[in-house]
Amino acid sequence: MASSTRQRADAARWHTASQVLAVVRRRPGITRAAMARELHLASGFATEITARMRQLRLLTEAPAPISGRGRPTTVLQPHHDGPVVLAVDLRQEDWRHAVATVDGMLHEAQRHTHRRRQPTAVLREIRHAVDRARARYGERLRAVSLAVAATLHDQHLVQASTLGWGPVDLSSITGDAIVPLLVGNDATLAGVAEARTGAATTAGTALHLIVEVGIGGTLTIDGQPVLGAHGAAGEYGHLPFGDRRLRCPCGARGCWDLDVDGRALARHLGEPAPADPRSYARHVLHRTANDPRARQAVSTVAQSLAAGIAGLANIHDPDLITLGGLGPAIRNTASAAFDAAYTDGLMTFHRAQSPPVVDAAHGDQGPLHGAALLGLDHCTSETALAEWAAHL
Ligand SMILES: [Zn+2]
């Protein structure tokens, strides 16, 4: 009992430090004065807490350029010996990794094409990257955070249909568990990145949707994804917004997935089902410049996409909707059809002020940024900061 009370008291000491780092992550390059305003800290206390965080190798301060009549202040920057996270994004055709500092910035980004697709081979490659990061950063490496194009349930990978994987145990990535492994769905993490540092930073409730092979996404509230009881929420592609005659690989009938991607374009064009629906869709989008049939196919897909988005706007009542992956290209190619289907699908009361649909800002770096943020959330929690200080 006594020890848990002490632990709570210790954690409380780290509350403000954790909040300061959250602000730095949301607004990299922020000054101490602006951080103090944002957190409603008296300037003396802000000076004191940043000095303490400097000693703890969490931040450094550099003189800020003088602007206006305000008193001189400093820019808050990650400490050169501070904690880092290894962010990894595992995708159908490749995987990428980068080291993230406490301001959420990515460093040493690398991309590798899969030499072999089998889970053991792919996970071994990722494990080598973790080992290299650990050799280089030692105890500064506080978490490995993985974004993966897969359905997750309680941090377990249940199915990754684009990789052709069934259930896979991911624990070999960190092996001995000295460094915690965090796992998130790639579309969910891309949504987190949009809400925190991308196109939806002003939105309290934001919906992010990404079209690749099928469609995925997440609802975020104040930058936190709505994950469901087991982290499996957000399978938007498996809503029955599609053609009821079609059976989805997930097992259900009429999934929206089948109406919004390269597979749908191929059906509308009477062409064979593509082996790689994403590059096929890019190819069809390219053809629209001088192929009216391709234009018509994209227009049909844009309508399915927009009608479904309208349905989701009716459900979630978001401030803003961000669209990533192939979504912006589909929309831009058939903007009139998209806009008409969107408005048509909204309940009347939404139409006066319909939630804007905007292009995602992070592009295909969204999942990697989101993985970095997830990892940094973890290693700048009050408990994790107490552990960091203890290790120093
Ligand atoms: Zn489905």
Shape-level CATH architecture of the largest domain: 2-Layer Sandwich
Based on secondary structure, the structural category is: alpha/beta
> pLDDT below 50 for ≥5 consecutive residues: which ranges?
none
- CATH class of the largest domain, anyone? Alpha Beta
Structural descriptors:
392 residues, ROK, alpha/beta, binds zinc ion, Nucleotidyltransferase, domain 5, kinase activity, five-stranded mixed β-sheet
Report on this model:
- The chain has 392 residues and is an alpha/beta fold.
- The protein folds into three domains: 2-78, Winged helix-like DNA-binding domain superfamily/Winged helix DNA-binding domain (Arc Repressor Mutant, subunit A), CATH 1.10.10.10; 84-190 and 366-391, 2-Layer Sandwich (Nucleotidyltransferase, domain 5); 201-360, 2-Layer Sandwich (Nucleotidyltransferase, domain 5), CATH 3.30.420.40.
- The chain has 14 helices and 14 strands.
- It has helices at 2-13, 15-26, 32-39, 43-55, 119-137, 186-197, 262-269, 277-287, 292-316, 327-333, 335-345, 348-351, 366-379, 382-391; strands at 59-63, 74-78, 84-90, 94-100, 106-113, 141-148, 151-153, 156-159, 181-185, 205-212, 214-221, 224-225, 320-325, 357-359.
- A five-stranded mixed sheet has the order 5-4-3-6-9, with helices on both faces. The protein has a five-stranded mixed sheet with strand order 12-11-10-13-14.
- The mean pLDDT is 92.
- Residues 238, 248, 250, 252, 255, 257 line the site of zinc ion.
- Zinc ion binds next to loops.
